[in-house]
Amino acid sequence: MTIPTLPIIDVSPYLDDNSSKESRRIVAEQLHVACRDVGFFYLKVDGYVDRSESEELMELQRRFFQRPKEEKEDLAISKQDNARGYQKVGQNVTLSQNDHHEALDFYRPVENPDATKPIWGENQWPSNPPEYREKMEAWVRKMKHLGMMVMKAMSDGLKMTEEEWKGLEKSMDDSFWCMRCIGYPSLPGDKGHKGISCGEHRDYGCLTLLFTDPTPSALQVLYRDPNGPDHAAADASLKGYWIDANPIPGAAVVNIGDMVEIWTNGLYKSTLHRVIHRGDNYRVSVPFFFEPNWDTKVEPLAAAKRIQEQMKEGENGKEAAKHYEPIVYGDHLKRKVGGNFAKYDQ
Ligand SMILES: N=C(N)NCCCC[C@H](N)C(=O)O
Ligand SMILES: O=C(O)CCC(=O)C(=O)O
Ligand SMILES: [Fe+2]
Fold first, then answer.
1. Where in this chain does the record put each Fe2OG dioxygenase domain (predicted)?
2. Reduced to 3 states, what is the DSSP secondary structure of residue 104?
3. 124, 79, 66, 90: which is closest to 282 by C-alpha?
């Protein structure tokens, strides 16, 4: 059989105030199909993010990760709230295994930071490269807007009314975003590899907007297929194919997270993915997590239930929709981040 590939969606009509209704409708429909069937897609962003801009972003990460160990560890997450800051190789844990990557994490700044409260401390900005903070803050602004526009397209794909969209928009208008800057050394072990660069997981919020360097064969996505040969490590009944999400120039790799799964009452699934970087170069990536506001209570949307009702009436409605319980985003995030790091000082 032919190996499935991820859908490609050109989101430019949603980034252009003068675009036609029809051009937006087409994007919304493509997005609906991609989110329902795969949960992962390429988002063409040419004209909004210049290629030189994403290349510069990667170069900044390379320069940061090349700094001396002591300088990076000055920004250790333990100096703050155990979430914001630098994590050395092996410090991240997924499915009880140490991930073979180092990372520098930032979250939305909070008004009264308190490093004793989870995720409530201050971001730790490197002083090298000197332009790092300014460039990354500009990137955050850009990604927040892009995230909101993709969510707008998604709401159109779900056939939400204007009023319903206003409600949803309000629950993300102060997004508790997260930006991870990740460095992946090649996996140890001669011939083949030992361990994993980032274990199988789902992302926590709304949308992940991922930019990477051109390294192929690193990020893999579980393309669901009940008759597929592979299965999820944590759930053998979840079957499919692990397919490569290789970078495409001018496009971000985008996936939906747990909050979109709840909002859509499972119509869209937060999709499993992992990183296995066997190549011998040093890979860098910057996922931007566009999330709901910290205190947003996330629960199934009426629009998603309307679609599920229609599906039930149609042919492919044999499967009864699971009911999702409401969850407050900040609680979900604290629980997830709380289990993410190995506690060791060395
Ligand atoms: N904010 C996000 N999505 N970070 C992804 C972290 C990688 C997975 C994590 N160790 C876990 O086990 O969930
Ligand atoms: O580096 C990548 O390609 C993906 C990283 C990722 O999935 C994550 O940090 O959540
Ligand atoms: Fe992820």
1. 174-292
2. strand
3. 66
> What does the alpha-carbon distance between residue 118 and residue 110 come to, in Å, rounded to a whole number?
12
Strand bridging mode 40-44 / 8-10: parallel
C-beta of residue 252 within 8 angstroms of C-beta of residue 210:
yes
Q: Is the CB of 107 under 6 A from ligand 1?
A: no
275: CA distance to ligand 3 center in Å?
9
Contact 213, 285 (CB under 8 A): yes
pLDDT along the chain (346 residues), means of 10: 88 97 98 97 97 98 98 98 98 96 98 97 98 98 98 98 98 98 93 87 98 97 94 92 96 98 97 95 98 98 96 68 91 96 64
Whether the CB-CB separation of 61 and 129 falls below 8 Å is answered with no
Cα(52) to centroid(ligand 1), Å: 28
User: Residue 198 Cα, ligand 1 centroid: separation in angstroms?
Assistant: 8
pTM for the model: 0.97
What is the rounded CA–CA span in Å between residue 179 and residue 136?
9
Residue 47 main-chain phi, psi, to 5 deg: 95, -25
Contact call for residues 224 and 240 (beta carbons, < 8 A): yes
Does the Cβ of 205 fall within 6 Å of ligand 2? no
Q: How far apart are CA 91 and CA 18, in angstroms?
A: 47
ipTM rounded to 2 decimals: 0.98
Query: What is the C-alpha to C-alpha distance for residues 211 and 221, in angstroms, rounded to an integer?
Result: 15
Are the beta carbons of 302 and 164 closer than 8 angstroms? Answer: yes
| Rama region for 131: left / alpha / beta (φ>0; ψ in -120 to 50; rest) | alpha
Amino acid at 61: Q
C-alpha closest to that of 339 among 110, 117, 83: 83
Q: Which residues contact 165 (CB under 8 A, 6 or more apart)?
A: 152, 155, 156
Domain boundaries, the chain: 24-338
Q: Quick check: CB of 87 below 6 Å from ligand 1? A: no
**CATH class of the structural domain 24-338:** mainly beta
Judge if the beta carbon of residue 120 lies within 6 A of ligand 1: no
Which ligand 2 atom is the nearest neighbour of the CA of 253? 3
